[in-house]
């Protein structure tokens, strides 16, 4: 309950008014909480008046203990919201209630002194790389799945929720959470996967060492040593004694399970969007092959050229150009897709800086752009 006390202390620093069974934060979102036996699950709905009946759009954020809101020392509170501020929020709100669940054991609102350079919550500012121990022990896939399903169960009972549609989308680690939710919750109608790794998490480190050796950034001997180190880390993650000593190994075990096997079990419309300059998503190019082999036609995939993991354009040296973002357009395409009334048909579009350069599809009626 420590993080709840921390949140309450911050609330006294600035004006937050109480709304319908929740707390209105910064006139942007309603903070709600579900109390469980050993925990509380905090989440926000991106609205301040919950009187319009709309379906839920649950966005599963990526990794790391980022709060949903930040309170600078001498400035108003501002929203991170699990990354949804990168999207055109008003466009999504026209049709859906946007919901984001707080990371486990992480306050909804955190003062800047308790954030490191990556905006992750740290209990002690003197140790910027040390996360809350309770968070470390809670950072595993099954816990995220259980927490999300508890929130969705609560939301289904609310008068302002239209249960005819349920959108679940996730970015990076959130794609794994979104997949787990979809497999365990029959009410999900559309699944969105962004910056996903179809073969787990640890494999991208191994592939990256190989790429560095191929481009002569490191020697093959160095790559061999680094790859073997990752094998050992993975072995430790599957050793109960090692896990007890080092809870940071837990997510390596939990999130390295290949997703492609789970995706092939899913029958609802699934949308996969990824960028070509993203080591995590390199193997997404292989996903359509698995769907073809298994005679599955519920996948729509979009490959964005010359963009990186967070859909920023990439400079010639491979670094992200933070002045040229494309998250709004990427998410907008997904939202339009969810609103299609007819049964979706598999198609593929290749984009370069959001200009279509080639497409293949079965029915022109489903071509969104």
Structural commentary:
The protein is of the alpha/beta class. Among the domains are: 1-147, no CATH class; 203-254, no CATH class. It has helices spanning 2-11, 89-93, 133-138, 141-156, 173-184, 202-214, 220-237, 240-245, 250-254, 260-263, 287-293, 327-338, and strands at 17-19, 22-25, 29-35, 40-45, 54-60, 69-71, 78-79, 97-101, 109-111, 161-171, 190-194, 270-275, 299-305, 312-314, 320-325, 347-352, 355-361. A 12-stranded mixed beta sheet has the order 1-2-3-4-8-5-10-11-12-13-16-17, sandwiched between helices. Helix 5 links the parallel strand 10 and strand 11. It is globular and about 60 Å long.
In short, what is this structure?
The chain is α/β, with parallel strands linked by helices. The chain has twelve helices and 17 strands.
Strand line-up in the sheet with most strands = 1-2-3-4-8-5-10-11-12-13-16-17
Q: Pairing-aware structural class of the strands and helices? A: alpha/beta
Strand content range? 15-25%
Radius of gyration: 21 Å
Q: Poorly predicted ranges (pLDDT <50, ≥5 residues)?
A: 1-20, 342-347, 356-369
Oligomer: single chain
Would you report the number of β strands? 17
Terminal residue distance: 47 Å
**What is the global morphology?**
globular
SSE order, one letter for each helix or strand: HEEEEEEEHEEHHEHEHHHHHEHEEEHEE
Calculate the mean pLDDT score and round it. 88
What's the number of helices? 12
- Give the biggest beta sheet: 12 strands, mixed
Helix content: 25-40%
